[in-house]
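Lab notebook, bench 4. We co-purified these components, and the gel suggests they stay together. Before we commit to crystallization screens, I want a quick structural picture of the whole thing.
Request: model the full complex, all chains together.
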Amino acid sequence: MPNLTNLACLRGRVIDALRFAEEGSLDNNAVDLIRENLNEALRLLSAVEDEAAAELPPNVLPFHLAKGVH
Amino acid sequence: MQPQLTLLKAESTPFPQTDPQLTLLAAGMAVLTARLDALRSQWRTRWEQINGYEEEAGVEAGAVRSLPSLTLEPVDDTARLARLHARLQHAGRIAQEGITNEETADDLCRALHSAIGDVELLLKAAAWRTEVMPRA
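Here is the predicted assembly.
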């Protein structure tokens, strides 16, 4: 299950990048800030992906909930 | 298509009333069936919430339904995470290559808006699962 804290931080970074992109100046400073926020967002996303991949439980179901068992 | 829980029905397993152990087992089955019915009702409520999430997030119908599986199968966010990854990389490429005109700026903003939508959806699904299936 994705980590809620990492996801929330990731959302904050993307929102910041969007804010700088929408401000319109798009000078070197703004582009640097966008890049910085996107890099951090990608770092957080990698952490979330690693966690999600590691936490998939084995496919073991209670017999009465397994498909095809009546 | 809505997945369905397969429920055991106590009434479908008639036990001889003369055997105390089987009578006890039948009573246990009745309790279990009632509990499963209650769970099924809860799942239906959650199902309606998920449909609401989809509409709110503007994603294609059924995209979220595979996440909180009604058969308690492993939940896999891989596809949505990969899509988010691709959007962020696209935005990063635009920023890296330079925002030279209004078109690229719009492209960047679109990618970021879509990425935020993906994150919102992941957050809602994760919060939903935390609530429904808390860790032991």
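The radius of gyration of chain B is 23 Å. Worth comparing against the SEC data before the next meeting. The helical segments of chain B are 20-57, 78-97, 102-132.
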